[in-house]
Amino acid sequence: MDNCNKTLLIILTLLITFQRATCTQETCREGRRNDERYLLYDVNPGEGFNLRRDVYIRVANLIRKLNDVDNWVLVLPPWGNLYHWQNVRPGLYVPWKNFFDVESLNKWIPVTEFNDYLKTEGATVGSTYVLQNYAEGWGGKWEEKYDKRPCIERHNFEQRDDGSWSGQMWATKVKTDNFTCLSIQGQAATLLPLIQRDLTSRSVFIGRAETILHDEYGGKWYWAARRSMRFARHLREEATRFRRDYLGSDDKQDKTEVKDDWRDTKPKRGAAVGGPYIAVHLRRKDFVRARGDEVPSLKKAAQQIKKLLQNENLTSVFIATDAPVMELQELESLLPGYKVVHYKPSTDFLHKWGDGGVAIVDQIICTHARLFTGSYESTFSFRIQEEREILGFEERRTFNRLCGKKSNCDQPAKWRIIY
Ligand code: GFB
């Protein structure tokens, strides 16, 4: 290569690097590269919001690994029709930007909303793999593997006359050239060879993605993806207003200020103080039936809350709960002399952001409390614990849960943040 060509090559490389470093989410997507490939995924319809957030981390880290050699974009599965959401019109799906700061997600891996994918790629996906376990079970010997197998469960894809398939993805009928049910035993990275070898497909859909495990639950990559999942600004602002107006809490005084970019936010453990209240996540409804021994009666819950308030020398308790109003009123009557605070959204807020938005505001308020206690094995509580790890609270103020029948019950495992 002569000197002139060398100089041209250097200028070109610099230009590409500059464009990648400066583009925003929108302009990056506009300036898409031809070699971009898309990974779509979905989760079992029965799973709740907070397990879905966990599945995102598994798939996000799969994209990270795929992008060592290729150029994959993760398509964010729209939210809707969740079992626990009572105020959502059936058939209505909302984008991730309603709940999350999509620019923050993009700082970890390239992501795009499903609607934007439809605009550029159309209602079509190259290959579809619906994950399932092995019909015969795992046979006592753990090995990572996957195999094409007959479908075990009903799915919503059907073959067309031309040999291709069509299926419902959220509210859209999508055509897919190849359809396979895939029995799998393993983690996200187990899928790497399958996806890398599928060279004919520009896009791949993975159904029932919760079937794959984390590559390294609780490790450095887990936490990086987790930290990128910042909530949308409008939800953070609603929680900030509520904390200020009803709980005398603000970030400066509580020492919970964060940097604009999650990558620059690494507080020292114990730096966060939290607002002058304790927060309780009291999971009721299906948990009362399904986890009877581990869910306290309201009387027992009130006794534990009183004790925590006395230990912390505080008088305000914030209750996040899915309990019916009657139960909440009963709990309040069992805590005379204390300030019991509960977040009730305006009609406008509920209309705009739905049950998902309300639940996130509840989670943010719990995250900022001086001390938090949650419910046994609730992913809703787990996600709050993680947010508190990100803010830098002392462990003893975070990893707590209410006891059911047995007082002195085992407390939650401490999944500490790793950078
Ligand atoms: O998020 P999630 O999977 O947590 O499901 P679990 C619970 C849903 O109930 C939340 C609502 O996404 C909310 O919509 N919810 C629960 C709450 N607690 C609160 C709260 O304090 N405030 C508000 N606003 N909403 C899983 C279920 O629940 O437990 C699975 O999703 C299954 O279907 C499993 O039942 C056993 O992990 O608590």
Automatic annotation (TrEMBL):
Catalytic EC class: transferase
Domain of life according to the entry: Eukaryota
This protein's UniProt keywords: Carbohydrate metabolism, Disulfide bond, Endoplasmic reticulum, Fucose metabolism, Glycoprotein, Glycosyltransferase, Golgi apparatus, Signal, Transferase
UniProt pathway annotation: Protein modification; protein glycosylation
Transcription regulation keyword on record: no
Gene Ontology, cellular component aspect: endoplasmic reticulum; Golgi apparatus
A GO term for molecular function: peptide-O-fucosyltransferase activity
Entry EC no(s): 2.4.1.221
Xref: InterPro entries: GDP-Fuc_O-FucTrfase (IPR019378), OFUT2-like (IPR045130)
The keyword Glycosyltransferase is assigned to this record: yes
Compartments in which it is found: Endoplasmic reticulum; Golgi apparatus
Catalytic reactions of this protein: L-threonyl-[protein] + GDP-beta-L-fucose = 3-O-(alpha-L-fucosyl)-L-threonyl-[protein] + GDP + H(+); L-seryl-[protein] + GDP-beta-L-fucose = 3-O-(alpha-L-fucosyl)-L-seryl-[protein] + GDP + H(+)
An annotated GO BP: fucose metabolic process
Protein family per UniProt: Belongs to the glycosyltransferase 68 family.
Record's protein name: GDP-fucose protein O-fucosyltransferase 2
Origin species: Cherax quadricarinatus (Australian red claw crayfish)
Lineage: Eukaryota, Metazoa, Ecdysozoa, Arthropoda, Crustacea
